[in-house]
Specification:
The structure is a homodimer of 216-residue chains.
Chain A: H1 2-26, E1 30-36, H2 42-52, E2 59-65, H3 70-76, E3 82-86, H4 95-102, E4 112-116, E5 133-139, H5 146-149, H6 151-155, E6 159-163, H7 175-185, E7 191-193, H8 202-214
Parallel strand pairs in A: 1-4, 1-5, 2-3, 2-4, 5-6, 6-7
Helix pairs in contact in A: 1-4, 2-8
Chain lengths: 216, 216
């Protein structure tokens, strides 16, 4: 019974996600679902990517958090349109929440819509939001064993961004190990190693993303 | 309807958790539920605490992970009794899982049972496992804003362990900010700042824990 209920919820979500995707496509907007642990550096990565995205590409952001406005305020400070979703306890965004938030944006003025999910390496894996691309963010201090422990989120993602590489000299982190694990789980997904604070790896990542958006 | 269903599940869990607690009490075992993000350093903290716990206190561990045996193998290497729970997708441990795992341990040979939950700062908050104490682990690279973003898990915990303090010189992390937030959410919970790798703060934390266990 519980499994059936879960399947039904996911089926409804899949339909709403398809609606979101169709709406974004019609408006020429490329959706990117950004997932990762709490504190993996999702917002800081977005801030760094904005600075490198070509001037012709206009971003917007939907911020998902249990509570608070911290991330939305950071995005707003950059002059980027942003809508904050407070899930009030829910552990992931779903397509219905994103549909509501999309209604608050002027999509005709947006090229790429980043949807920053709730910090969660488990529950976000099961919910399509209507994106064209899902990026999983893993920070070096979290350790190189996370793909083994949380396979679903890596398996369903289109790229892995290893963040906070500036901390690697102070850690026992083997980038080759997590890259090999990601290649097993998602053979076609590129792996980017970046330090958003130092700007390292950001131009290459932004170039790849711009190509994806350009192909929409 | 959804809320009722969730309430019913939680009610069943609460009853099972009470059973676990009674069973642990009868065996003279003090249960500790350890929660935190993926990669916050929960296992490394346990490894460091074992080394400092007085010889008279015998630990055991229940490890919760979506998949894999990595953490259980680390604990086993220390000669500490350990049971691995693979949740196969579930985002938190529940009291029924812990009851099963407890059945695999010789409780008469245990003084303190650490239950390392799935790495998740959201879903673990709502489920009593039958512990006497819940410790929330936050690593410095996750950032000092996490109590604002994920209040429930901090509010319901009996102590905050700030881990990986050796990385602080390389981060923008304000320990005073998170400590103040924790004091608002859980006024009686002590805050420990530790570096498990360097051994800093571990003796004080182990002393506090031993006192709690001793008062069982």
């Amino acid at each position: 019974m519980k499994i059936l209920a879960a399947k039904k919820i996911l089926k409804v979500n899949d339909q709403l996600a398809a609606d979101n995707r169709a709406k974004l496509d019609a408006a020429g907007v490329f959706g990117v679902n950004v997932v990762g642990s709490p504190g993996s550096g999702k917002t800081t990565l977005l801030e760094a990517l904005f600075a490198e995205l070509h001037a012709g590409l206009k971003p917007a952001v939907i911020e998902g958090d249990i509570a608070g406005l911290i991330d939305a305020q950071r995005i707003e400070a950059l002059g980027v349109p942003v809508v904050q979703i407070n899930t009030e306890g829910a552990c992931h965004l779903d397509a219905a929440m994103v549909a509501s938030a999309m209604g608050e944006l002027d999509l005709s003025a947006v090229d790429v819509l980043f949807i920053e999910n709730v910090g969660n390496l488990v529950c976000t894996a099961g919910f399509d939001l209507g994106e064209r691309l899902r990026i999983v963010v893993l920070s070096t201090p979290e350790g190189d064993d996370k793909a083994v422990k949380y396979p679903a989120i890596f398996q369903g993602s289109h790229a892995l961004f290893i963040t906070k590489t500036d901390l690697t000299p102070h850690l026992n982190f083997n980038a080759q190990r997590i890259t090999a694990d990601m290649k097993c789980l998602a053979p076609n997904a590129p792996v980017f190693q970046v330090s958003a604070l130092k700007g390292q790896g950001i131009p290459e990542a932004a170039k790849w993303l711009a190509e994806k958006v350009g192909g929409r």
